[in-house]
Each structure stands twice: as C-alpha cells, then as structure tokens.
Amino acid sequence: MNNRLGTLVLALSFGLIISGRSLYAQAKLFTNVDESKVEAILKRLTLEEKVGQMTQVTLDVLTIGPDPFSSKEPLVLDPIQLETAFKKYKVGSVLNTANNRARTVEVWNDLIGKLQEEAIKETGIPIIYGVDAIHGTTYTAGATFFPQQIGIAATWQPEFAYKGSQVTAYETRASAIPWNFSPLLDLGRIPSWPRMWETYGEDSYLTATMAAAAIKGYEGDDLSSPFSVASCIKHFIAYGAERSGKDRTPTWIPEIQLREYYLGSYKAAIDAGSHSVMINSGIINGLPVHANPGLLTKLLKEELGFEGVIVTDWADIENIYNRDKAAENHKEAVKKAINAGIDMSMVPYNFKFCDYLIELVKDEEVPIARIDDAVTKILKLKMALGLFENPIPKEGQYLDFASEKFKKLAFDAAAESITLLKNNNVLPLKVNTKVLVSGPNAHSMRALNGGWSYSWQGEKVHEFSEGYHTIYDAIAHKNGKENTTYVAGVSYKNDGEWHEEYQIDIDEAVRAAQHVESIILCLGENTYTESVGNMNDLYISENQEKLAKALIATGKPVILVLNEGRPRLISRFEAELKGVIQTYLPGNYGGDALASILFGEINPSGKLPYSYPKFPNALLTYDYKPAEVKESMDGVYNYQNAVEFQYPFGYGLSYTTFTYAGLAFDKTNIKADENFTVTVKVTNSGNRAGKEVVQLYSSDEYASITPDNKRLRAFQKIELNPGETKDLVFILNGKDLSFVDYDLRRVTEKGSFRINVGTEIGKLNVVDTKVFTEHKRVM
C-alpha cells in the first residue's frame, strides 16, 4: 500500500469524512488531459458526431439475433448494426453484456477490440465501454468476486473497500472495459428496498467513508493506468428513499433531509476524484431526477463542483415520457434531460435519441453550448483513460487475474463481514460434530453471490461457479462428509421468480435432525436486483418459517445462518434459536469463510451496517428522532412506540469479549470549529484474539431543530490479543457535530453533546455557534 493510501485508510478510521468535512480538498479532474487536443477534436466534429458521443447503446443492439433482446450464441457482431451505430450515428459508448451472461477475458478483448476498430475508423474517437462491476467484474468468467457492498460495509474496514475495488479495476480493465458503474452510494434506510444489499448501509458517515476508499481503489492516482477504471457513483440522489420501499417508485423528501443524510456520500466521492455520476431513475417531489436542473446543474455541477460526465441510468430519458408522463413525447423528454444537465444517454436499444437531439439543436431548443459542454467532458474522460493511445489492453499485462492473492483478499473480506448476532453457548462448533445442514440457501452458490453475478439477476451463477464451495460443501469439507448431513427441506424454484419456492420435504429434514447434535439452518433469499426484487412482506418466507419452527421443535440446537440481501424479519421464531449468523451476500468464498467461523478457526468481527428490524411497522434507523420512541406521557395516554430492534446498527458479537474504560477529552469546552481529541482504552478481556470495531457516536442534547438520537462520527477496527489493551485516539472537529438547520445552513450550535464509545459516555460543551455553509434551495 502506498503512503498516500495508507494515510487515507488511517484518516478514514479517524472520522475525517462526513457530509460537512472531507479528507480531501476536491480533486481536480482531467489533470493529465491536453486541453488543446480536446478543443481541436471538438472543433472538427459535426453536430451528428457530437450527439453520437453522447449516445450509449447496449451490446445486444450490435449482435446478431432476431431482435435486440434475443441475440444468438455464440456471440457474433452484426455488421449491419455496426454500420448503423458507428457510420450513421457515430455512437461513442457501449455498455453491458449480450444475452445477459459473462464472457471470458479473451472474448471481451476480441469483441471490444472490434468495436473500437469500427468507432475509430468512422470518427477517430474510441468508444468508452461500461459495465456494472459491483463486487468484482460481474460479466467476466473467472473474475474474483468479493462480498456485495453491504458485506464490505459490515467489515467496517475501509481497506477492504479500497483493495477490493482495486482488484475489480484490475480485472475489469483486463477485460478491455475501462468504465465501471460503481460504487452505489445510495443509503439503505428502507429495509424492503431491493437494492439494499448494493449499498454500504443506512448511515451517511459509514457510506461516505467507504465511498472515498472505493473511488481511490478504482481510479488510483493515474486514470490512464492499465490497472485503473473510471468510477461512476450512483444514483444521484436519494435513490432508495422511495416511500413505498419499492424500486423506482416516487420519493417525497424535504431538502433538509436530503442534505443531512443523502448528500454526504456523494460529496465524499466527488472530493476523492470520481470521474462520472449516474442519475437516480426515480422521481423526487413529483419531478423525474433526469429532468431536474435544480439537482443536476445547481446542486451537482455548481454547488458540489462536479466536472465529470453525467450519465443516465437505463432508458431513463425515455422513462420521462413512457413511465413518468412528465413530457409530451420522447423528443420533449430529450430536451428536458439534456437542458437539465445530462451529458450521456444510456439509450439503450435504439437511435431515436440521436435524431431527436439533432433536431432540438437545429431548432435552437437545446443550445449548442450545452452539447459542446457534454462532449468536452466525454472526450476528456476518454483521453484521461488513455483510450486514444491504448483502446484495448496489451497482451500479457494481467498475470494476476484471479490470482491466489486476489482470492485470499476476497476470502478475508467475506470472513470479516460475517456477523455473529446471537450465541447461546453453541459456537464455535467442534470439528467432527454431527450436524444437519438445511434450508434453501445451504447448497446454493447463487444465493451466496446475489445479483450482478455472471448475469444481471444472478440466475446463471451455477454455470460459472464450479470449483467454489456452497455452505454445505464448505462445512462438509471442514467437518467431514460422514459427520455432515444435507437435507434442503425447502428449495428455491430456480426457473421461476426469485421468491418462488417449492417444498421438498420438511418432514425429511425433521427426520434427519434426529441423528445429529446440531442443526445449521441456512435461510434468506434467492438472487434478485432492482425492481425484480420488489416485495410486499418483509417477513422471511412462509415455507422457510415452517422449516425453522419444525427443526426448532426437534429440541436440537438450531443455529440460523442468514444469507440475504436485506434484513428479512425472523421475530416469530428468533427467541428459540441458539445462534444467529448474518452472512449478507459474501461472494464465492462466503461458504468457506462461514465454515471457518462456525468451527472456530476465525473469530467473527463483522458489525451490522443497518438496523435489523423486529416488526414490519417498526422500521426505524439508529439515528431516529426522540419523538419516534417515546414510551409514555403523563396523564391518561400510553404509547406503543418503544424502540425495539431485532439487532441494532453497529452490533455484532465475538468469541471473545472487549471492555472499555477511561474515555477522556483533551478539552471539554470547544469552539464550533475547533479540533478536539477523544481517547479511550479498549481491552480484550476474553481468552482468544479478536477484532473489535470501536465506534464513536455523538448526541446533541438540544438544538434549534430536533436532534437525532445519535450519530456515528468515527470508527476504527482494531485487533487485540487476550489481555491486551490499546489506547485509541480520535481527532475530531466541532464541525463534525454540525447539522443542516431549518434554513438549510450547515451549523454547529452552542450547547452540550454526549460522546459515546462502547460503554463509555462523556460530555462535551460547544461554547459558540458557527454557520459553515448557507445553502441555496435547489428543490
């Protein structure tokens, strides 16, 4: 690790990135780009060529098949469609895979090499190819798959966000793909949202911390490096805040909330140097985000100072008309989106965007200056990536592809993400224990990986995952097949919808339980993403609940292993479980990591990056307002709104114990913009080595608007041997205690604050008030 990144990881642990303050002064983009070359190219381009640069089509459009949705295999480029795309429309970008499946590195290089030849022949400008490589290089066979983002957040280790992204960049660029639509920086604050698992959890600070590390991993110090890719932060902004909890449904949000919770991760990523942004597919306060100049131009470009490329999500300019009815026709939708600030349209299946935009410019309804601005940024991005000099990788550059060191990193990330939530003296298990492994997730590589794995919905994982271990495989390998019985009890219907199940035989699982000492019950979800994963019931499925209750009734100790993209409710049977482990979506090495934890080779250290709800109408986040949990009022009224999480944010057990003592400040009275130091002693009071995530929270005792219950302000993951004590130091600033007030000012107010680290609580006084920023309304 270079010194700069070592400083980054250390500083991230000390809480130097929040919505109000960032480790980096905003990174200057395109510093390696020759502006005069960009200007010369722009000057020679026709209007048609400029609009082509702003156009992105999916690979299916360019391959042979009866229609764009049904290309044939083996994959062959269609010469007629190539001519249409590159000779007629001068298309500047291609995305995605074809036929919704992964390809080998060799196929990708051949395929993209041919596309580059066609594009350069027509315009002299290479295409920029993009994919969603979100936990590894999604569409490349043999690539190294890490835990999904929610699992990386559960490690509470920014270093995994950095190193995992670095490996993904390496293997994506090896596939001739220089643009990655990642990381996803939306907050997972609504548990039913089907993209919850693609987030870094519910907290803005944890998300911002991981975001900055991921950007540095993807982009490195030199974007033209053959081992770097351009990141694309998504989906700006407040995607996932939908009132319904379902994907791409309307959001109603006051600007104070948008700025306090949702903006910080994007600011951190922009400051860290991300070169592109993808826009929220949904509607905020009645207006599609893709047609909102307040959010795209005033907030993103002017206030945040973003200078990179702004790209739509899938078909979202068309959706302004087709779905949202916020334009009279497709042509008006194009006009609204481009004038709002969009630089590139992910079309993705036709070329009407080009025709409409050319007409709009000729009719002076879209200024040519807006076109030139967009194309300049696109050209700069291509030049910064070195695509003009090296449009495809050189042979022999990627000898570490899927290397053992990459696999070890993925295993370690999975191991540190897995979170022990309950342990009534049943774990770790002894090797050679007679166990039953049951449940629909027990023998499924698909469930371990989740969506965006070899295919969009992850349904093709089994075609590419030979050689990896399911949970059952890994347990049997560790414990011996003769000691390990597998009966699914319930299985997913892999040829149906993600949530469809068929009952094999719960009675068979119950019979098998009679001959074992412990039951490892693997429940959760099958793969899904985006709107496909919308749901109406957050409880774990009825069949899985029946299986759980039947196995509990045997009297054998049941250890529940959760393998899920969002926290499915288990409160109807959780009290009778002896152990609970959350694996999230840990990737190809998740089964092996889990087995190592179950049998005590690895001490679990993951912590929840979200609040695990107990009831469907009690979906609070940890930073709730005091009024949300008031239990009673003087007089005749009683309330039933006590806070009751199944497991709280930041929670996770270990096979050892940690004690906290000696919380102290270097000063207890500070100015609103003054640095202060918090110190605390942490001791491993147990009998084995372990890792602990030390979390620092602040609570404002009163403010001009109702303060949150508490807010995460810093964290650091440490490792301690038995009996070992470490003195931890957190350096913060009064601005870290700031909030967005009613007038949209970021302010730290005079008053008292509680600082909580572990079991330790102290009080700090801010002696004055300071307004750091006065924001202009954009909504």
3D architecture notes:
Keywords: Glycosidase, Hydrolase, Signal. Residues 692-761 form the Fibronectin type III-like domain. The protein is α/β, with parallel strands linked by helices. The chain has three domains: 3-13 and 49-384, Alpha-Beta Barrel (TIM Barrel), CATH 3.20.20.300; 414-613, Rossmann fold; 656-774, Immunoglobulin-like, CATH 2.60.40. Helix content is 30%, strand content 19%. It has 22 helices and 32 strands. It has a six-stranded parallel beta sheet. Strands 12-19-18-17-13-14 form a six-stranded mixed beta sheet, sandwiched between helices. The protein has a five-stranded mixed beta sheet with strand order 23-31-30-25-26, with no helix packed on it. A hairpin with a 2-residue loop joins strand 30 and strand 31 (760-766). The longest helix has 19 residues, at 105-123. The radius of gyration is 26 Å and the shape is globular. The protein starts with a helix and ends in a 5-residue tail after the last strand.
Please give the structural blueprint.
Blueprint: H1 3-13, H2 35-44, H3 47-53, E1 55-58, H4 79-88, E2 93-95, H5 105-123, E3 128-131, H6 149-155, H7 158-174, E4 179-180, H8 204-219, E5 230-231, E6 233-236, H9 255-262, H10 264-272, E7 276-279, E8 283-284, E9 287-288, H11 293-303, E10 309-311, H12 316-322, H13 330-340, E11 345-346, H14 352-362, H15 368-384, H16 404-417, E12 419-423, E13 435-438, H17 445-449, H18 461-464, H19 471-479, E14 484-487, E15 490-492, E16 501-503, H20 506-513, E17 518-524, H21 542-552, E18 558-563, E19 579-582, H22 590-598, E20 612-613, E21 645-647, E22 658-665, E23 669-670, E24 675-684, E25 690-700, E26 711-720, E27 725-733, E28 739-740, E29 745-748, E30 751-757, E31 760-766, E32 770-774
Parallel strand pairs: 1-2, 1-11, 2-3, 3-4, 4-5, 6-7, 7-10, 13-14, 13-17, 17-18, 18-19, 23-31
Antiparallel strand pairs: 8-9, 12-19, 15-16, 20-21, 22-24, 24-27, 25-26, 25-30, 28-29, 29-32, 30-31
